[in-house]
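User: Can you predict the 3D structure of Membrane dipeptidase? Sequence below.
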Amino acid sequence: MNTKTLMAALLLIAAVAVDAHARELVVSEQARALQARAINLDTHLDTPALFGQPGWKITDRHSYAADGSQIDYPRMVEGGLDGGFWVVYTGQGPLDAMGKLKARDFGLKRLGQIREMVAANPDKFALATVAGDAARIKAEGRKSVYISMENAYPLSHDPSLLSYYYKAGLRMLSLVHGSHNDFADSSGIAEATAGEHGGLSEKGRQLIIEANRLGIIVDHSHASPEVFDQMIALSKAPIILSHSGAYDVYAHPRNLDDKRLKVLAAHGGVIQVNSLGNYLVDTGGTPEYRAELGKLYRSFGGRGEMSAQERKQAMAQIEALNTKYKIRKATFDDYLRHLLHILEVAGWQHVGLGADWDGGGGVVGYEDITALPKVVQALLDAGYNEQQITAVLGGNTLRLIEQVQALADPAAVKAALE
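Assistant: Sure. Here are the predicted structure tokens for Membrane dipeptidase:
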């Protein structure tokens, strides 16, 4: 189990335990019917990090309160999620030869786990690689599994592996995560960090060019503002932010400012709105708090090795730490502030949903995928019509997939698939 998911799940559980003031929103039959007609996609599902956990099965209904998970097949059905991009996430490690080899092997293992999940459940899931797959798979009563990579670290040793990932189904790629790597500068986690490359490195530029050739969507989330500017200038296809928020609502380095939101829209891109509380509001987390929290996380090891009793103990410790430092908990209303602001600035044709489920996403009142209908209702309440809401739920994502693939190099695609 990766540390990112462990941290996020335990912290979110503790947050909800401390603050039970959730927005009460009654979902109408109109909202449910609209959602049922739409194709509902989320572009950042970190759930593959759970696939290696002993006893955890995607086909079982799990409890968010019990194990911190937010996505499984029964809850996807209940929440109306038709699928999305399932993530090959690799935490950033050393950039020496051994670190890069370990990252290569880890990424391939995670890719294999995603494909194995699909193969083991052919009645419930299907691999998706083109825009048209989503409607077909939904009509068949199954869930779409598009594949993305968060952090190109697994490609650092050998960037030519991208063609192998493409052949295996990869259709979205982000270059960097919480710290700088060979490809690009990171936006940082809590505070903006000084860049190492001034944005993209030459290696990163070449990776974007190759992604364009193959029709792989380039993802800016987690990268620095300078990387955004350079991606827009370099990429011949529109780009995505698979899970990001609005800087002008909360000035966190992970979020995108209004000026760049307008540039994104002008270039045909899409921003998928993230629900990770630390990116939505100022939680009041001080350096001292983060230091103590980090120490706690390191003591946990991996959630895959933790018993249920140990998880409860860990959650209690985090809850106590949050209380000690009076940490503010983001709510569904905080999430909506970002979503509605981005819709106003970028336009409904350039916005989607990328909650970061099972990777830190979720706020009070929006804890797992079963709450997705609340977003539909909130958009109706805000005055958006069915065409606009359907676009946000998945239509804009599908349009972007189609546009990016239409601009691919047919010869490069053919060579990768042979």
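Confidence is low (pLDDT under 50) at residues 13-22. The first strand starts at residue 41 and ends at 45.
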